[in-house]
Design a protein that fits this description.
mainly alpha
Length: 163
């Protein structure tokens, strides 16, 4: 039994229940906390917790839960830690994928998760195809066909005065 008076099994049940109640944004905030705890990265965990503090505001329920998580998780057996990872991944498979990517590839790059970068590259490919359609020879504007190009002088502009 831990210092909180709860068994590690009860603590695990609480964390899983809280995870189910977390909003999408809270899950995003929990991700680096869980990844840091799972990866035994105390420096990353400390930085994440420091970023979550609110100097002039009362502590939120979410922050209290994260504080308890950080107290409880290190005291659990590896089997219980594994069960938490499995449990949150079953509740939210997308979160589970993000967590595995985070653990495998490290923290996000420029605010993006590495696996999202692959999705962005796929979108860039789609955009390139669309741009190619607009830039192919059949879709060139008549002024461009004649080599004249489009001048800003040829674009009518209407300016309305506010009364």
């Amino acid at each position: 039994m831990s210092t909180s008076g709860l068994t590690s099994e009860a603590q695990l049940r609480y964390i899983l229940q809280w995870f189910e109640e977390f909003s999408e944004l809270q899950r995003d905030d929990f991700l680096p906390v869980l990844a840091a705890a799972r990866g035994n990265q105390a420096d990353q965990l400390a930085a994440t917790l420091a970023a979550m503090t609110c100097q002039d505001k009362p502590v939120s329920l979410f922050q209290c839960r994260i504080k308890l998580f950080n107290e409880w998780y290190p005291t659990w057996a590896e089997e219980e830690q594994d069960r938490l990872i499995k449990g949150v991944s079953e509740v939210d498979p997308e979160f589970g994928e993000k967590l595995q990517d985070y653990l495998t590839n490290g923290p996000p790059v420029n605010g993006e998760f590495n696996f999202l970068i692959g999705e962005n590259l796929a979108h860039e490919e789609e955009n390139k195809k669309e741009n190619e359609q607009w830039n192919n020879e059949d879709s060139v504007a008549p002024a461009e066909e004649e080599g004249q190009g489009i001048s800003q002088d040829n674009i009518p502009v209407e300016i309305a005065a506010a009364s």
